[in-house]
Amino acid sequence: MSGDLQKPGETPHQPGEYVERGPRGGDVPKPREVTIEPGDKPLPPTQKPGRTWERISPPRPSSPSRPKR
């Protein structure tokens, strides 16, 4: 855990993959995971009040769209 926890509604410090954490940064059952891209704001709501968001990695590259048949 990086220790950089942010509250829902805050502007993300940087783009990346974020995972939902408990109020003190612990794991939660069935956490939400979101991708924050440059320009996205604010961080979305969590499933329960008091939870936070932690950035776990840089944004994943977009997958190429499949050609239509």
Characterize the structure shown.
- With 69 residues, the chain is an all-beta fold.
- Helices cover 0% and strands 26% of the residues.
- It contains no helices and four strands.
- The protein has a four-stranded antiparallel sheet with strand order 1-4-2-3, with no helix packed on it.
- It is globular and about 35 Å long.
- The model has no long low-confidence stretch (mean pLDDT 88).
β-strand amount: 25-35%
Low-confidence stretches: none
Radius of gyration, in Å, reads: 13 Å
Helix/strand/pairing category: mainly beta
Distance N to C terminus? 44 Å
Total domains: 1
- Number of helical elements: 0
Helix content, binned percent: under 10%
Q: For the residues shown, what is the average pLDDT?
A: 88
Q: What topology, given as strand order, has the largest sheet?
A: 1-4-2-3
By DSSP, the count of extended strands is 4
Please provide the ordered H/E string of secondary-structure elements.
Answer: EEEE
Shape: globular
Give a quick account of the main beta sheet: strands, pairing sense, barrel closure. 4 strands, antiparallel
